Amino acid sequence: MAWRRSKFVAALGGGLMLACCTTMYVAPVGEDLAEATVINMASEPVSIFIYGDAKECTDRKVISPIVAPGERRTLGLAAKRYVAMTVIEAIGNRACFATFDFRPEAGGRYNIRFKQSGDACFVLVTDLHGGAQERPVHINKRVWTRPFVERSPSCERDSIDRSKAPDSTSTI
User: Given the DSSP bridges, would you call strands 2-4 and 120-127 parallel, antiparallel or unpaired?
Assistant: First the structure.
C-alpha cells in the first residue's frame, strides 16, 4: 500500500506534537491477544500510533516515540476487532503518513513492515501463520486528518461495513 509524501512543514510539526502529547501504548490485558512486530525498513526514524477506536482513530497512543531504521518493536494487540494505526516518517520538511487498519486474530503473529521509496511510503502486514511462511493480510487504507484537539478523530470516519469486509488474505 503506497502513500505520497506530504510536503507541508505543518505535517512534520503535527507528527512531533502528537508524539509529545500522546500517552504511551500499553498492551491490553484480559482479552484475546495477537502479537505484531513493527519493522522500520525506511531510511529515517518513524513514530507509530495506535488508536483505541478504529472507526474514527480516537484514543491515540504512541507505541514508541521513535523507531530507528532497521529497528523492530513487538507489541500485543487486542484481537477479534479492528485495530487502526498510523506510521509517520519525517525527512526534513516532508512527512509520510500511513494510516490503516486490520483485524488481528486471537493468538496470531504479524509483521508490519514500513518502508519508503522516492516520494511514496508503503505498509505491508503479513501473518506468520505457522511461523515458516508469511501471508499478506487484508488491510484498509485510512485517510489521516489533523485532529482539532487531542480527543478529536485522527482519520476520516470509517464507512466500511466490516460485517461484509473480506476475510481473505490480500493487500490493497
Answer: antiparallel
Using alpha carbons, list the distances in angstroms from residue 166 to 102, 123, 139, 154.
11, 19, 10, 24
Q: What is the dihedral of CA 13, 16, 22, 24, to 10 degrees?
A: 170
pLDDT in tens, 82-113: 999 999 898 778 888 889 999 999 999 999 99
**pTM, rounded to two decimals:** 0.77
**For 22-44, what is each residue's pLDDT tens digit?**
688 888 887 799 999 999 999 99
Helices (H), the chain: 9-21
CA distance 172 to 124: 9
Q: How far is residue 118 from each of residues 114, 122, 152, measured CA to CA in Å? A: 14, 11, 31
